[in-house]
């Protein structure tokens, strides 16, 4: 009986530790919102050139675990992307998720109408490389849209 209890206890604590480790790898909604606000403030304080260089730096202060900032002009052109430099200079409005959802169009429309919000879609996680449910928080500041997403 004690052996069963020991095995169960060991399994239970292993499960708790592994769940905590997985959760620590993912950013939270609050962290994503804070990162967007931090990015907007950073650009206002340091100017666009310095800010974009920092946002595009994969080892910079705007990349944390699976969180990263991306910035687009009002026309959909990416000017910064912390996880995929190949997207910089591209029109992001053409992107679709695995379900063919035009999530960037939705972000652009909502940003122009409401100023900020959340959009859900499915996207490859740069850490795990798996397609995962994702929700992106965005805010419009001037003619730019700042965004950061969380994997669920």
Automatic annotation (TrEMBL):
Key word Zinc present: no
UniProt key word Transferase: no
Membrane topology recorded in Swiss-Prot or TrEMBL: Multi-pass membrane protein
Subcellular location: Cell membrane
Domain Single Cache: 21-105
Keyword terms: Cell membrane, Membrane, Signal, Transmembrane, Transmembrane helix
Pfam families xref list: sCache_2 (PF17200)
Signal peptide: 1-23
Origin: domain of life: Bacteria
Name of the molecule in the record: Cache domain-containing protein
């Amino acid at each position: 009986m004690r052996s069963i209890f020991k095995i169960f206890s060991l399994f239970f604590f292993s499960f708790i530790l592994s769940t905590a480790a997985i959760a620590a790898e993912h950013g939270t909604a609050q962290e994503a919102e804070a990162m967007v606000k931090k990015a907007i403030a950073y650009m206002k304080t340091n100017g666009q050139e310095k800010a974009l260089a920092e946002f595009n730096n994969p080892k910079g202060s705007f990349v944390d675990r699976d969180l990263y900032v991306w910035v687009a002009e009002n026309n959909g052109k990416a000017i910064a992307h912390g996880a995929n430099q190949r997207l910089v200079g591209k029109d992001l409005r053409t992107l679709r998720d695995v379900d063919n959802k035009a999530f960037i169009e939705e972000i652009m429309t909502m940003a122009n109408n409401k100023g900020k919000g959340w959009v859900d879609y499915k996207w490859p996680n740069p850490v795990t490389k798996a397609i995962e449910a994702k929700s992106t928080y965005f805010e419009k500041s001037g003619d730019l849209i700042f965004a950061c997403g969380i994997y669920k």
